[in-house]
Amino acid sequence: MKRFFDGSVLVPVFYADHPQHASSTKLFLDAGKDDFCALRTLGEVYATLTGLPLRPRITGPEGMGIVKQIRERLTLITLSEQEYVSALELASSGTIVGAAAYDALISHCALKAGADVLLTWNVRDFIRLGSAIARLVKTPLEL
Q1: How confident is the model at residue 55 (pLDDT cuts 50, 70, 90)?
Q2: pLDDT value at 34 more than 90
Q3: Over pLDDT 70: what percentage of the chain?
Q4: Range of the domain at 54
Q5: Does the pLDDT of residue 95 top 90, yes or no?
Q6: Per the confidence metrics, is the pTM higher than 0.85?
């Protein structure tokens, strides 16, 4: 089964006090190069974890160590310029506006990867992106 990880699943892996830490970590540790995440998700994970109001803070070098762990475990998926623009055009033809555009881009990466499942804790954000995406969406607790 090809699994595609959203940032909402990856962040808890590296934040032990997160309520979804255990279930997210189990799936991440079971993942391999046949599993995926979007390239842009690396920036999202880095920004989220280094921006958390923790004491001590997660530093930039520690954040890069997290990025390295994700890169070593998962295959990163990018969209070409045409795929990126097409994904935005498709999103704009529906009700997708604002930050939901990023979910649309991530979902197109999942489709490009041929993922069997798109793992997210933000189910509602993804199921509104159409039936091709909605059928892939699962939380880590559903696997």
Answers
A1: confident
A2: yes
A3: 100
A4: 3-142
A5: no
A6: yes
**33-52 b/e (C-beta count within 10 Å ≥ 16 → b):** eebbbbebbbebbbebbbee
Contacts of 90 (CB under 8 A, 6+ apart): 104
Domain count, the chain: 1
C-alpha 16/C-alpha 25 separation (Å) is 9
- CATH number of domain containing 89: 3.40.50.1010
DSSP character for 77? Answer: E
Please tell me whether the peptide bond between 61 and the residue prior to it is cis, using omega within 30 degrees of 0. no
3-state SS, residue 36: strand
d(CA 118, CA 27): 12
Tokens read off for 78:
């990018």
Order of all β-strands in the sheet with 117-119: 75-77, 36-38, 3-5, 117-119, 137-138
